[in-house]
UniProtKB/TrEMBL annotation:
Pfam family name, one: PCMT
The EC number(s) this enzyme carries: 2.1.1.77
Entry keyword annotation includes Glycoprotein: no
Descriptive protein name: Protein-L-isoaspartate O-methyltransferase
Protein family (similarity comment): Belongs to the methyltransferase superfamily. L-isoaspartyl/D-aspartyl protein methyltransferase family.
Gene3D superfamilies registered for this protein in UniProt: Vaccinia Virus protein VP39 (3.40.50.150)
Signal peptide: none
Length: 195
């Protein structure tokens, strides 16, 4: 019997259309990024699937979603962790954060939330460490501030210098690997952030 892909199950349970601007919902099935305002996009579904497969989320884990945008990835992550887990999305742009949180509220996942990013802070170190960290924005170099928020064991997935990068912390050692080239909006820091 074939193993059911939990990422495919999450996609089926959390339709993209509910996380797009009303005028763009008819394009939810298009495998393209869709603008959501303030220079941000809802990433194309095939890219999100690649991110989530690489992140390898399991039920009960604590997951940080950096650059949560429309809330779609946060909702998908909540589906993957299940109610025994916890998912926290952080978003820098206040208008997008409010909209994403409202979108997420339409999904029955009280163990997931979206907050505005703290000024001067990348990620959410105060509530870490995190079993998994997903970053949906590109950085020129790997931010040590996010690596420091990883649990042991833990996995972080983000685009770095054009390559999808996987960071694995296991028994005190940290390894990185690259997994193809992707284009993302740039990772922006909250005012006063060191990155």
């Amino acid at each position: 019997m074939d193993r059911v892909d939990p990422v495919e199950q999450a996609f089926a349970a959390v339709p993209r259309a509910a996380f797009l601007p009303r005028g763009a919902r008819s394009r939810a099935g298009d495998d393209t990024p869709i603008l959501i305002g303030h220079g941000q996009t809802c990433s194309q579904p095939s890219t999100v699937a690649d991110l989530l497969h690489l992140l390898d989320v399991h039920p009960g884990q604590r997951v940080l979603d950096v650059g949560s945008g429309s809330g779609w990835t946060t909702a998908l992550l909540a589906r993957l962790t299940g109610p025994s887990g916890e998912v926290v999305g952080v978003e820098l742009e206040p208008d997008i954060e409010r909209w994403g949180a409202a979108n997420l509220a339409g999904v029955d996942a009280p163990w997931a939330s979206i907050h505005e990013a703290e000024p001067g802070v990348l990620g959410d170190p105060q509530h870490g460490p995190w079993d998994r960290i997903l970053v949906s924005a590109a950085a020129p170099t790997l931010p040590q501030a996010l690596v420091d928020q990883l649990a042991d064991p833990g996995r972080l997935v983000m685009p770095v210098a054009g390559s999808l990068t996987l960071v694995v912390r296991d028994h005190g050692s940290v390894t990185t690997s690259r997994h193809g080239h992707y284009r993302f909006v740039p990772l922006r820091s909250a005012p006063g952030s060191p990155t």
